[in-house]
């Protein structure tokens, strides 16, 4: 059972973002030979191929090679299992030898890619199979190999001279345009933040996405060197109070996704006379969490109907989308184009989007000290939206975690910075309120507890006996100077 998990059809999967430069390099390799995509761990080899397949609507069969494939028959059996799940694969006979690749390419739809992934782990016994697949591939079918190393000499000798077309680290490295596209998927649009994270990651796609998912604003080494711009400090405050839908404007829905989930229409909050339609609402939440760019349809189908075949999943998505549009009463709020679904940002206001936009305009949190007053006021208004993490009642769904984790980390960074601002201004009530807000969101956060302790100690007065309040998850009271507490 464990072996079967290693072999999956690469359907057009959810790419982090299209990567035109890397796609062009892969297309050139496909046009000239058998692509050998190689680079260090985390360089995005598999993600590149999956994104390419999605963008070009190409079917593929993938084998994640391992030492278990020292017996070629095991690898062929796994490929047969996965090929039968694709259109036209039901009648594919069981493989009896390398000549089976001719039947594989004949039965499956074209264009088609046969992908050997993790080939740096492949035993030498797999080389004849790869060579046979390359030789059997007709026009419209290609073999692609992904590895952390250059082609082994034993395999290269089995192929015609020049058969392998290398796609190396130079093509895989994240460009600034790629970084911007990926960051937008995480609701991060600040050019300064994206540029700093891109530099900190060294162009390694996995490192860049980890920094985004962890909510790391620009690398700490850059914090002091990246002051908040005058433009950000004086930028107009975004609509942090939910606007009223309806009227002459295009807005039709306002959505609360931070804390209690709620959809408001011009007639008021959306109500359900009977049991709420779970699947259409789940689809709406998926789109709200994804941000204004939306989600590829194939990713939604993979999440909601993972065991359905392609046609059945498409029908299920169409039905669910129709039910959602009927439920909302404003079908134009959910757009469908070029294989993507999204909420129209002109017609739908989402509190998480407004908060992310405000944080983007603010730029990275400073290293310390007070902020420009206009910026502090804007941030205080923005952070008031954050009542709880994004769709906190919906568990830890894989499609939700990246956006939720990144937004939460950014909010906590700014809570600490805003508390430090009011503390530096000796505005003790505002500093206390900000630190308590942060501790309500993340009980026991050491830096926030220490900040609140400093504020309580500095603002304490002998006439204030009994005014100290307990801190969620901590003991800030202990930081009050002992001689003052005893007086």
Describe the structure.
With 487 residues, the chain is of the alpha/beta class. The protein folds into four domains: 2-172, 3-Layer(aba) Sandwich (Rossmann fold); 176-226; 253-350, Arc Repressor Mutant, subunit A (Orthogonal Bundle); 356-486. 46% of the residues lie in helices and 11% in strands. The chain has 22 helices and 13 strands. The protein has helices at 2-5, 20-32, 45-56, 72-83, 100-107, 127-136, 153-156, 169-172, 176-185, 191-201, 205-213, 220-223, 230-234, 278-290, 297-304, 310-328, 351-362, 373-383, 401-424, 428-441, 446-459, 482-486, and strands spanning 7-9, 34-38, 59-64, 112-117, 141-147, 164-167, 253-256, 262-265, 268-269, 295-296, 334-337, 340-343, 348-350. A six-stranded mixed β-sheet has the order 1-3-4-5-2-6, sandwiched between helices. It has a four-stranded mixed β-sheet with strand order 9-8-7-13. Strand 4, helix 6 and strand 5 form a beta-alpha-beta unit. Helix 19 (401-424) runs parallel beside helix 21 (446-459). The longest helix has 24 residues, at 401-424. It is globular, with a radius of gyration of 27 Å. 40% of the residues are buried.
């Amino acid at each position: 059972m464990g072996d079967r998990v290693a072999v999956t059809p690469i359907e057009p999967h959810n790419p982090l973002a299209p990567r035109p430069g890397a796609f062009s390099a892969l297309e050139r390799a496909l046009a000239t030979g058998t692509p050998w995509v190689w680079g260090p761990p985390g360089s995005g080899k598999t993600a590149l191929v999956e994104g390419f397949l999605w963008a070009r609507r190409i079917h593929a069969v993938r084998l994640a090679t391992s030492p278990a494939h020292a017996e070629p028959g095991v690898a062929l059996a796994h490929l047969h299992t996965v090929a039968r799940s694709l259109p036209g694969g039901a009648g594919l006979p069981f493989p009896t030898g390398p000549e089976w690749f001719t039947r594989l390419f004949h039965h499956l739809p074209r264009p088609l890619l046969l992908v050997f992934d993790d080939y740096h782990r492949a035993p030498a016994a797999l080389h004849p199979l790869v060579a046979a697949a390359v030789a059997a591939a007709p026009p419209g079918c290609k073999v692609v190999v992904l590895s952390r190393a250059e082609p082994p000499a034993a395999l290269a000798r089995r192929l015609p001279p020049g058969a392998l077309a290398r796609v190396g680290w130079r093509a895989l490295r994240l460009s600034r345009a790629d970084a911007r596209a990926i960051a937008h998927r995480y609701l991060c649009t600040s050019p300064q933040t994206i540029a700093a994270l891109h530099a900190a990651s060294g162009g390694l796609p996995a490192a860049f996405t980890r920094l985004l998912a962890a909510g790391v604003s620009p690398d700490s080494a850059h914090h002091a060197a990246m002051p908040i711009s005058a433009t950000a400090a004086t930028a107009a405050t975004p609509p942090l109070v939910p606007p009223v839908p309806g009227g002459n404007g295009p807005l039709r829905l306002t959505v609360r996704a931070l804390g209690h989930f709620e959809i408001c229409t011009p007639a008021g909050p959306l109500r359900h006379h009977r049991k709420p339609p779970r699947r259409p609402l789940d689809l709406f939440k998926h789109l709200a969490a994804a941000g204004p760019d939306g989600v590829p349809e194939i990713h939604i189908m993979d999440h909601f109907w993972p065991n359905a075949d392609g046609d059945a999943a498409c029908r299920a998505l169409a039905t669910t989308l129709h039910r959602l549009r009927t439920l909302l009463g404003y079908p134009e709020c959910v757009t469908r184009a070029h294989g993507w679904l999204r909420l129209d940002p002109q017609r739908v206001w989402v509190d998480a989007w407004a908060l992310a936009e405000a944080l983007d305009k603010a730029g990275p949190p400073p290293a310390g000290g007070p902020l420009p007053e206009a910026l502090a006021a804007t941030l205080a208004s923005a952070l008031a939206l954050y009542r709880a993490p994004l769709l906190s009642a919906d568990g830890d769904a894989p499609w939700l975690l990246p956006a939720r984790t990144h937004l939460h980390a950014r909010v906590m960074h700014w809570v600490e910075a805003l508390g430090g601002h009011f503390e530096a201004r000796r505005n003790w009530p505002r500093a206390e309120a900000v630190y308590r807000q942060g501790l309500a969101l993340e009980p026991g956060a050491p830096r926030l507890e220490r900040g609140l302790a400093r504020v309580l100690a500095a603002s304490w007065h002998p006439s204030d006996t009994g005014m100290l309040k307990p801190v969620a998850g901590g003991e800030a009271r202990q930081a009050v100077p002992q001689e003052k507490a005893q007086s």
